[in-house]
Write a structure and sequence with these properties.
alpha/beta, Arc Repressor Mutant, subunit A, 2 domains, four-stranded antiparallel β-sheet, 41% helix, binds calcium ion
Length: 225
């Protein structure tokens, strides 16, 4: 298992390297965002630990650029436990995040969880297909009529939830709880905003929409005869 650490605080890198090598992981490190991104794109890693506050290129930007090309699992290391960091990171495609300072045991548990879901399940894939829209739920790949569509984590989660529950009208609250989580404090209008994003991305803009609006209730994807 090969892990890339992108972190500018030498103390943290030293500590992580020591602990993770002790666990049997091979560790490569970069101390700025630019070098980290280059490594992440040119080499193959099982996991990336990515700091948010970095010189050259910040962690969110590194992640954004990485996700255009690769699905390598990423755990964000954030110094501030702000909702903004968490939401931005996860929305950009981070698989998890951990707030500094953290206990090594907690990080190890999260790494193991990612390795379990991220790497070993890629052997078999589960495809959900409705009309010409196809989801590979393991690789989190979306295609329509064979064309790959790039969605953010939240957009993907939203689409997968609707497709898994085909023919079931889902309320805004159900969608909010499932996709954003019970601890989400924002407005439920966010659901409508994201439905719009997803519709645009999948080209669902004509009258005969795949994602149907049920006025006053929520949304549904119906399998048409
Ligand atoms: Ca930093």
């Amino acid at each position: 298992m090969r892990i890339l650490i992108v972190e500018d605080e030498a103390e943290i890198v030293r500590f992580l390297k020591l602990e993770l090598e002790h666990e049997g992981y091979e560790i490569i490190s970069a101390s700025d965002g630019r070098t980290g991104l280059d490594l992440a794109l040119s080499e193959s890693f099982d996991l990336i630990l990515l700091d948010v506050m970095l010189p050259e290129l910040n962690g969110i930007e590194v992640l954004r650029r990485l996700r255009r090309e690769k699905h390598t699992p990423v755990i964000m290391l954030t110094a501030r436990d702000t909702i903004v960091d968490k939401v931005t990171g996860l929305d950009t495609g981070a698989n998890d995040y951990i707030t500094k300072p953290f206990h090594i045991e907690e990080l190890l548990a999260r790494i193991r969880a990612i390795m379990r879901t991220g790497v070993f399940q890629t052997i078999d894939s589960e495809i959900i297909k409705i009309h010409d829209l196809e989801l590979d739920t393991v690789q989190r790949l979306v295609t329509r009529s064979g064309e790959t569509i790039s969605l953010t984590k939240t957009q993907y989660d939203l689409l997968e939830y609707l497709m898994r529950n085909r023919n079931v009208v889902l309320t805004r609250e159900q969608i909010l709880n499932k996709v954003w989580g019970y601890d989400y404090l924002g407005d439920s209008n966010v659901v409508d905003v994201y439905i719009r994003y997803v519709r645009t991305k999948i080209g669902d803009t004509n009258d005969d929409k795949i994602i149907e609006t049920v006025r006053g209730v929520g949304y549904v994807i119906r399998e048409k005869a």
